[in-house]
Each structure stands twice: as structure tokens, then as C-alpha cells.
Amino acid sequence: xxxxxxxxxxxxxxxxxxxxxxxxxxxxxxxxxxxxxxxxxxxxxxxxxxxxxxxxxxxxxxxxxxxxxxxxxxxxxxxxxxxxxxxxxxxxxxxxxxxxxxxxxxxxxxxxxxxxxxxxxxxxxxxxxxxxxxxxxxxxxxxxxxxxxxxxxxxxxxxxxxxxxxxxxxxxxxxxxxxxxxxxxxxxxxxxxxxxxxxxxxxxxxxxxxxxxxxxxxxxxxxxxxxxxxxxxxxxxxxxxxxxxxxxxxxxxxxxxxxxxxxxxxxxxxxxxxxxxxxxxxxxxxxxxxxxxxxxxxxxxxxxxxxxxxxxxxxxxxxxxxxxxxxxxxxxxxxxxxxxxxxxxxxxxxxxxxxxxxxxxxxxxxxxxxxxxxxxxxxxxxxxxxxxxxxxxxxxxxxxxxxxxxxxxxxxxxxxxxxxxxxxxxxxxxxxxxxxxxxxxxxxxxxxxxxxxxxxxxxxxxxxxxxxxx
Length: 470
Fold this sequence. Notes:
Elements: H1 8-26, E1 43-46, H2 52-55, E2 67-72, H3 76-90, E3 99-104, H4 108-115, E4 120-123, H5 130-139, E5 143-146, H6 154-170, E6 174-176, H7 184-192, H8 196-199, E7 212-221, E8 223-224, E9 227-228, H9 238-241, H10 249-260, H11 268-271, E10 272-284, H12 286-293, E11 312-324, E12 327-338, E13 346-352, E14 356-361, E15 371-376, H13 382-399, E16 404-408, E17 411-415, H14 426-441, H15 448-468
Parallel strand pairs: 1-2, 1-4, 2-3, 4-5, 5-6, 7-12
Antiparallel strand pairs: 7-13, 8-9, 10-11, 11-12, 13-14, 14-15, 15-17, 16-17
């Protein structure tokens, strides 16, 4: 057989083709499909300025490659992040094995996009430009797992909508980290509301007596992973972090949609009515500010929020009143400086039904641990409530073994084994695992994207209303 020599032109074409294919297979990993196989997800951590970034890596995941690419401006925030990851790698119990490849420079965003060394970008940091970063990453064909909030202004909201449209065009996923869906009392509140004989129908409520209320109390001084949390100074600048009414309320609005309308698409154009919104500051002394930031003076960008007594006013508190499909709902967020001794961040929630109320309390009477109670409502008698609750229990126990009930001064208490109390930090791994599942399945549930859009419409519209209100 005679072998003819390849022409120079054909050889050049072959070389170019091989080069392109090699480049696509090695660096453009965002275009690969996911099957759930080991190491197929390669994380990129972008400008990690919030502790939620390192909590995503507190655990290892089979589907995620141990090598993580970090892009950030040089500074203390990224150093703190890398040190925390290293502490996870060297801890005595269940150490992780992350390998960090770090690029530091002011061009970190453009460098990340041009190099495209991973396929999933994790964002948890300064929120001022987060929505822009999300859009840039999505346009580059990268999946994004973002900490809340993904939008802190009405203009951010419009850009976020376009990011979701781009994600759909590019075949990538954009998902926010909703840890509170994995808290056991919130799960059980949702589950018990599904029993008509027990809960009845959800009440419509009124502005003065909403059918659903969720209130969250947080603290600037707190412990994370066993040590005092160091917050960046910009965390107290609402133009960078976002006001409380667009930050923590993201979780609360999400829980209402998730629990009251499970698996249903909520259209913000036709099914949401905004009623009122308000905001107010938490006052913080320089000593308190320095204690949590390790910064000795208020930065220049905070001076506009410092009063004549040298006290910083942080607009971290807010309230939103609205209806969702005619159901009156209220969310409240409050930030105090430090929790009482033995306490931590707290959550209160009530879902009012025609036959029973489902109430989560987390006060001193509960030793600051969230506990779900079932109270009678309407014309329901104690006997009818007990009968319906006991009838619902086997189905609950089939999904959540060990759950039980007992009578208490607060109504029927839902008894939860300690094994379900994994703690807030562990919820980040649970959210990440759910996202990895969606990647392997190739799609998010149909309701997720429209409901994320609705959620951020509510929070950003509420901020606009609160700022306009006297």
C-alpha cells in the first residue's frame, strides 16, 4: 500500500484542529455535560469576601474535583478565606483535601473568564458588584452557585433577570444558596401543612394579622467554625452588603413560597401585591465595630452613616408586608450587635390554617433552639386536633424516622431527634449537594428560576418602597 504524504496545508489544518480540541477538553470545562461522575465539577471561587464561601468547602463531594481555582484581589479577605480552607484540611476529624490554585490581581474577573479553568463559580462576598459578576460568568458559559442576595437594588434585579435569560440560552444553571430549606423545623412546618384534616386551608389573613409571618434575628458578633467571626468593614456599608431588607429577608421570602406553594410557579407580575415596607438602623459604637472587623477607625465610605456621637447607623433591619396569591405575608429581619448569653441567631415563624397553626419558636423558653408547635385554630377542638395530628404522624415518620409529638404549654410540640440538628454550617453542604444533583440531572426544577425572580422582585421592590416611605 502506498502512503501519500500529507500536504502542508492539510497538516496545518490538522494541527489547528487538534489544538482546538485539546483546548476545549482541558480548559473549556463549562461546556461539558454532567453525569454525576467523580471529579467532573471543578469549582472556581470568585472574590471570597464572606464566610459562606468557605462553608461551601467545609465538606468534600465526590462529584467535585479537589482542585479549586481562586480568583480575587489581593488583600486580607482572600487570605482569611484560604486560611479557613487550610484549617478544614488540617482538622483532626474528617479533614478535607482541597488544593487551592490562587490568582491575585485587580483583573481577577477578566482573568477568570479568559482562563476558564473550572465550570462552576462560587460567589459569596461583596454584593455591590455581585450581580454584574453573575452576568459575566453566565455569559462566559459558566454555572453559578451564588450566596444570597443575588440582587440588592431594583437595577440589580433587572440585570439578574437578564442573567437568568442568558443562563437559559447558554445551557448553564444559576442558583442561590437557600440554606434555610434544610432546617428541620422549617421542613416539618411545610410537611404538616400538607394534611387538610390537620391544617385545613391556609388563611388569607390581613395586613394587621398576616396568615404567614417569618422573623429572623441575627447578630454581628458571632462564632463560626469555633472562632469569633471576623467581618469585613464593607459588611456594614449597605451600598456594598445591601440593607437587611434585601439580605436576610431573601431566606424568609423564599421559605414562604417554598412552604406555602410547594412546586408551584409564582408570577410576580400577577400574583404579588406589595403593601408596605420599612427600614431602621442598628447603632454600633466604634469599639463594637473594631471588635468584629479588627479595623481601628470607621472607613471613609462609612462616614456618611456615622452620627455626631460617633455611632455608626447600619440599616440592617427591615419589614415587608405583601400578599402572595391573596395570602397576607410579613417578613421581618433584625440585627443586634451580640446575642444574649447562650443564645444565637433566632427564627420565629407562623403559618395560620383554618384548623391549626404551625408555629416555630426559638426563645429562652426553648433554650434558643427552634421548636415547632401545632396549635388549634378556628373551631377545632383539642380532641379533633390531637386525633388529626396523630393520624398524620405515620406519614411524617416514614419520611423522617424518629419524629414524635408531645403535649406542652405551647400546644403540641413536635419532638425532633438530635440527629436532625446538624447546625447552620452543615446546611451549606446540603445545598451544594442538591445543586450537584441538578447539574447531573441537567436541569433545575421548573419552579426554581421563576420563583427566584419573584423572590428578588419582592426584596428589591420593598427596599425601594421603604426608602420612599417616611
